[in-house]
Amino acid sequence: MNTIYYRDAQGAVIVYDITDVDSFQMMSDWVKELRNQLGNGIPIIILANKADLESRRQVELEQGESYARSLGLHHFSVSAKTNTNLHDAFANLTQQMIQTLS
Fold first, then answer.
1. How many C-beta neighbours within 10 Å does residue 57 have?
2. Which of 86, 89, 79 is closest to 49 using CA atoms?
């Protein structure tokens, strides 16, 4: 059923919650699924959400950054609540999508 949500996608955002280790561990499944369905060329960014809850952090920043680097993906620490770093993240994804389509 998930495939109908990202069929014909030109880019993807994978979000994990820095206060929830399980959400971080699920990312590899999502990356694998996206690449299986859409190919390796699709731009993907990883967002570490809830940067405003630093005191409750369970996933270290370096863990997320290292994982993203290992896949050649961009990683952004963001907060949807405070709108922290979201513009930069989506600007980056947009730029990658434009380059892919060129």
1. 14
2. 79
How many angstroms separate the CA atoms of 93 and 89, rounded? 6
CB of 65 within 8 A of CB of 35? no
Q: What is the largest CA-CA distance in the chain?
A: 42
- CB contact set of 64 (below 8 Å; sequence gap of 6+): 16, 18, 24, 46, 48, 75, 77
Question: What percentage of the chain exceeds 70 in pLDDT?
Answer: 98
To the question of pTM greater than 0.90 for the whole model, the response is: yes
| Local structure of residue 18 (DSSP, 8 states) | T
Contact 24, 64 (CB under 8 A): yes
